[in-house]
Amino acid sequence: MTRIPKKVKAIEIAKMLEEFYPETPIPLDHKDPYTLLVAVLLSAQCTDARVNKVTPFLFEKADNPTEMIKLEVETIKGIIRPCGLSPRKSQAIWDLSNIILDKHDGKVPETFEDLEALPGVGHKTASVVMAQAFGVPAFPVDTHIHRLAHRWALSTGKNVDKTEADLKKLFPRETWNKLHLQIIFFGREYCPARGHDPKVCPICSKYGRKSLMK
Q: Catalytic annotation on 29?
């Protein structure tokens, strides 16, 4: 397999992803920045499909911070239990709702700094909200994108932070928001964590690491 410069490879991969996924609907059902924030928080170590089954029951009771803090934490925990980590997530949802009301006039903050200061909100969650709710260029990297970036030899990062930095250098800033979703969709359909055959994967077969092709 001929060695291809990363920049050239990135351009070709981006073209392929655009052909596969010209449209990129947001995977988590929501109606505004607050419901998106809660849904993304719930998606930690949980599938988007399961989150989308749970959030209608939660948002029926409370789809804004004012109503959310009226619920008991135990009530929230009972509703979101199928998403896993319910004790921590329920407390975080209740606490961040209070902070949004007290410090941000009831609105989800629109900066990375303020978002990451909220309970249960890390850099990846903040990146998703900034990208999908406010249209600010961001490149949320989860374990799936981290895995694909390694398979495609776009990053040698040992953690998601390094992989994010590597990918941001390779792809134009204006493509980040759509591209991270395209990679997620491609990974689910063609490049899964288990049962993956790099010889038949459309991207790995052309641009994957040589070590994976043996």
A: no
Catalytic residue among 124, 161, 162, 214: 124
φ, ψ for residue 6, nearest 5 deg: -55, -40
Residue 43 lies inside a defined structural domain of this protein: yes
Range of the domain at 172: 6-24+139-213
CB atoms closer than 10 angstroms to residue 99: 15
Q: What percent of the chain has pLDDT over 90?
A: 90
Residue 1 maps to a domain: no
In degrees and rounded to multiples of 5, residue 68 shows phi and psi of: -65, -40
What's the rounded Cα separation, in Å, for the pair 104 and 102?
6
Say what the pTM is: 0.91
Q: Render pLDDT for 75-126 as a digit per residue (tens, 0 to 9).
A: 999 999 999 999 999 999 999 999 999 999 999 999 999 999 999 999 999 9
Question: Which one from 107, 142, 158, 169 is the annotated catalytic residue?
Answer: 142
pLDDT, mean over the chain: 94
142 as an active site residue: the answer is yes
Residue 97 sits in a domain of what CATH number?
1.10.340.30
- Looking at the structure, do residues 143 and 112 belong to the same domain, yes or no? no
Q: Are residues 82 and 101 in the same domain?
A: yes
Of 91, 87, 82, 92, whose CA–CA distance to 51 is shortest?
82
CATH of the domain at 197: 1.10.1670.10
Q: Within 13 A of 32's CA, how many CA atoms are on the CB side?
A: 10
- Mean pLDDT over residues 34-39, rounded? 98
Residues 126 and 161 in one domain: no
